């Protein structure tokens, strides 16, 4: 299935249905469309969600940089939109994606690589790529 962008009028109606928080943001959970693997959570503002739905390439809002963050623009680890869904309270978005490469800035496929164990956090996966190769500097 190839992603089909909504018509401009439908897009605005859909964006109006989203319950953005006081900061103008909505939680966005990225999930691999075919395997169900949960990759990451980030934030979208109205412009990021609009761009994602218009272009089919996932865009988030970086709270630390206070600007739009096009997934993969610095790392090359792109997310192509397969489908976007709004939850029942309209305060969270699920983006079903085709993840190219790794999703996590630590070089792992998923940001959810640690499990709560009886003796502390358990590392479930190792990095697939060195973060230095992704960004040119180290991330924790």
TrEMBL record:
An example molecular function term from Gene Ontology annotations: phosphoribosyl-ATP diphosphatase activity
Chain residues that bind Zn(2+): 88, 104, 111
Pathway: Amino-acid biosynthesis; L-histidine biosynthesis; L-histidine from 5-phospho-alpha-D-ribose 1-diphosphate: step 2/9; Amino-acid biosynthesis; L-histidine biosynthesis; L-histidine from 5-phospho-alpha-D-ribose 1-diphosphate: step 3/9
Cofactor note: Binds 1 Mg(2+) ion per subunit. Binds 1 zinc ion per subunit.
GO biological process, alphabetically ordered: L-histidine biosynthetic process
This protein's UniProt keywords: Amino-acid biosynthesis, Cytoplasm, Histidine biosynthesis, Hydrolase, Magnesium, Metal-binding, Zinc
Residues annotated as binding Mg(2+): 87, 89, 91
UniProt-listed Enzyme Commission number(s): 3.5.4.19
Main location as per UniProt: cytoplasm
Places the protein is found: Cytoplasm
Domain Phosphoribosyl-AMP cyclohydrolase: 40-113
Catalytic activity: 1-(5-phospho-beta-D-ribosyl)-5'-AMP + H2O = 1-(5-phospho-beta-D-ribosyl)-5-[(5-phospho-beta-D-ribosylamino)methylideneamino]imidazole-4-carboxamide; 1-(5-phospho-beta-D-ribosyl)-ATP + H2O = 1-(5-phospho-beta-D-ribosyl)-5'-AMP + diphosphate + H(+)
Quaternary data: Homodimer.
Protein name, per record: Phosphoribosyl-AMP cyclohydrolase
Encoding gene per record: hisI
